[in-house]
Amino acid sequence: MSQNEGRGTPEQSGQPEPAAPTPIPPAGPPADPPATAPPAGPYPGPGPYPNPGPYPAAHHGAHQWGGGWLPPLPPRPGVIPLRPLGLGDVFGGAFSTMGRYWKQLIGFFLAVQFATLLVVVALAAIGMAITWSHLDPVFDPGYGQDPPREDLVPVLATFIPLGVIAVGVALVGFSLTSAAMPVLVQEGVLGRPVTFGTLFRRAWARTASVLGVTVLTGLLAAIPLAAFFLIGIPLSEAAEADGAGTDGSANFVTLLPLLLLLVFFPFAVWIWIRYGLATAAAVCEEVGPVTAMRRSAKLVRGSWWRIFGISLLIGLAALVMAYIIQIVFTLIGVMVMFPALALTGPDADVTAGVVILFTLYALFSVIGSALGQLIFPTLSQLASALLYVDQRIRREDLISGLLAANTPGPRP
């Protein structure tokens, strides 16, 4: 009998085989799903906490110099390792996602911004066309005179509804862009490619839910502001009308903005963190705005300060990067414009070269501003989506679901 035959199979020798990870419904459709596979859908919802078992290569760990074995490295199919994330993992994952999908990001951002700007300009043109004959008396009534009522009312009646529509269009554009970030993270974690068409379809399908999250969160954060207008202003007017003392009422009116800041700002930050993962939940789990906000509150509970610290650091870093990019492009535009400044003067003629140089300056300024506006919200929203994944890994064993989603199905 040979040496290998003497050892026998693992069952015969009493050595148990390593357990396979417990499958969870995948985040998206596999390449060749088996006949009994569950229907494809979003990230799996919360459930029990099964033991995923050791990683497939756990019994082949690397040998240390001092003896013993190193634990196996966690799998990394995409932009992050499949384990609980730290600050460096979230920061690096956000940048890796931007680097992996930079074409889709820039194209999507420019398309949404251009469409939003086009609609707003069209609304402004419609309003001006309707009230053209009333604009001059309203905006140039004469020194010391009020605009005539017969001209002011049509202008307000036209531009107020159009302004509300423009704000709604801007919110839809913001929500569409926000919905795209969790889609990129969802695919980036698994290392899968995303086309522009797929990104737009999936983001547009969840825009209504993300819009609901944005509006509800804003309304909750505005509660102290509404209380100021409903309570603070009447109290200040009553204090001014009271004859007990003008100095006391003046001090009260002066302190009102400070009191508003002390109450409004901490409450708004608390709301921002508590429901900061709702956008990712609305997109990845395909739920409504209220359910997404409840999921965010549940995932954040007990980790508020950690999520606040990571979000604050990444937000500050993104803000500094956006500012530096704008400054660099503005300086390039100024250096390009220097020859035009030397050629211009009181009696100098405007030449084609001067026009081109000034146009280049404006172009560099616009590019810098656009890149700055892209960097800041993109990094912040990608970080929020990664924090959502991190909290699900820590609390709901999302690793098993991600591994199952990244495993191709059996061939027919």
Automatic annotation (TrEMBL):
Residues 18-55 have a biased composition (Pro residues). The chain crosses the membrane at residues 105-132, 152-174, 210-232, 252-273, 305-338, 350-376. Residues 1-15 have a biased composition (Polar residues). Keywords: Membrane, Transmembrane, Transmembrane helix. Residues 1-55 are annotated as: Disordered. The keyword Protein biosynthesis does not apply. This is Glycerophosphoryl diester phosphodiesterase membrane domain-containing protein. It comes from Streptomyces venezuelae.
